[in-house]
Amino acid sequence: EIVMTQSPATLSVSPGERATLSCRASQSISSLLAWYQQKPGQAPRLLIHDASTRATGIPARFSGSGSGTDFTLTISSLQSEDFAVYYCQQYHSWPRGTFGQGTKVEIK
Amino acid sequence: EVPLVQSGAEVKKPGESLKISCKGSGNSFSGYWIGWVRQMPGKGLEWMGIIYPGDSDSRISPSFQGQVTISVDKSISTAYLQWSSLRASDSAMYYCGRVVRGGPFDSWGQGTLVTVSS
């Protein structure tokens, strides 16, 4: 099974600052990676697919990069509504997929 | 339009059976797979399994194999997640999501909270 490891577990950022989240796969997954945002009491929301393609309606301040085993989600200027937990998910082993353990972005 | 609507919260006793549902609307089922994800209290997302309504082809994660059953009734655009004998450790939020073949979850149900307690 492909294991996804996210870091850091918690990221403290001030509004307006940049946030950089990492996700590493235990083996190469090409670019078959998605990022999701989850706010308390809500279902996850797809932000990025295929490592770097924003989903419909996602603001341009969210960007994804990487391929192979190392991936990054960058939020260029954090807004109040961006404080949430972010998960990566690989779908290289589709139909089976695995999620990372999540990174919580909190207000500094 | 809300693509996926899940059944309501459930409170069950250990050993009881349960079947929760995920209903699609419009074209939300046609051509898509439907997956299930578990989120235990305060924890992350766990991929459980997936099913294709067109032919009921399904795959379940080894972590959940033998513990749950995934099924679908395409005539009513509804997918199901079923337990024959619940345990306290099954207490969690369960989400269904729509998956394009070979892709990620592009939309999600609102979640069904399952509580198993004696």
Question: How would you characterize the overall build of this protein?
Answer:
The complex is a heterodimer of chains A (108) and B (118). Chain A is an all-beta fold and 108 residues long. Chain A has no helices and 11 strands. Chain A has strands at residues 4-7, 10-13, 19-25, 33-38, 45-49, 53-54, 62-67, 70-75, 85-90, 98-99, 103-107. In chain A, strands 2, 4, 5, 6, 9, 10 and 11 form a 7-stranded mixed sheet that branches. A 4-stranded antiparallel sheet of chain A has the order 1-3-8-7, with no helix packed on it. The mean pLDDT of chain A is 96. With 118 residues, chain B is mainly β. Helices cover 0% and strands 51% of the residues of chain B. The relative contact order of chain B is 0.31. The model of chain B has no long low-confidence stretch (mean pLDDT 94). Chain A binds chain B through residues 1, 34, 36, 38, 43-46, 49, 55, 85, 87, 89, 91, 94-102, and chain B through 33, 35, 37, 44-47, 50, 59, 61-62, 95, 97, 99, 101-111.
Q: What order do the helices and strands come in, and which of them pair?
A:
The complex is a heterodimer of chains A (108) and B (118).
Chain A: E1 4-7, E2 10-13, E3 19-25, E4 33-38, E5 45-49, E6 53-54, E7 62-67, E8 70-75, E9 85-90, E10 98-99, E11 103-107
Chain B: E1 4-6, E2 10-12, E3 18-24, E4 33-39, E5 45-52, E6 57-60, E7 69-73, E8 78-83, E9 92-99, E10 105-108, E11 112-116
Parallel strand pairs in B: 2-11
Antiparallel strand pairs in B: 1-3, 3-8, 4-5, 4-9, 5-6, 7-8, 9-10, 9-11
